[in-house]
Amino acid sequence: MNEIYISTDVETDGHIPGPHSMLSFGSAAYTADKQLLSTFSANLETLPDATAHPKTAEWWATQPAAWAACRSNLQSPGQAMKAYVGWIRSLPGRPVFVAYPAGFDFLFIYWYLIRFAGESPFSHSALDMKTFAMAVLKTDYRDSTKRNMPKRWFDDLPHSHVALDDAIEQGALFCNMLAENRGR
Q: What CATH number does the domain containing 11 carry?
């Protein structure tokens, strides 16, 4: 069974799940040859006892379009995460969570999956694009930022801070990195 690379982006109102909420998330399922198979996104109701972090709230105030996008058509976290598990299971391959940075996005997705769906189809694993870029570029980790990545890795796709837009954009970036690495 082939791996399906599930590029995922989250939008939150703070640094960690529990005290803060995941506001929305988007996932784009890609094959290794950059075929976009399917997408999933959801905007979530905030956690009952959570509050926005002041610095994050300040940043959201500078992003009115993205804020409006993530606050429409809200779903309960339980409903959204159960539907997400169903979507992942419907894909024709083994799911691999991919994000930039995986340490942040996976923290929220994993916590919400375990808390609201009782399971994670990703197990405990996530592929970090920045770490992969470090290996491909043979650079130090701190030098493997997007601004230091070759322009050829980037497709002309928006990075709007709307979770699904960013998941699609970053998924294409990952597939371009993967193709170049495998072509060596």
A: 3.30.420.10
Domain extent, residue 124, equals 3-183
Q: What angle do CA 12, 158, 181 make, to 5 degrees?
A: 95
**Residue recorded with tokens 């009115």:** 64
Q: At what angle do helices 163-183 and 129-137 cross, to 10 degrees?
A: 30
Count of the separate structural domains present in the chain: 1
pTM for this entry: 0.96
Torsion angle, alpha carbons of 145, 178, 36, 169, to 10: 10
Instruction: Give the pLDDT of the chain (184 residues) as one tens digit per residue.
Output: 899 999 999 999 999 999 999 999 999 999 999 999 999 999 999 999 999 999 999 999 999 999 999 999 999 999 999 999 999 999 999 999 999 999 999 999 999 999 999 999 999 999 999 999 999 999 999 999 999 999 999 999 999 999 999 999 999 999 999 999 999 6
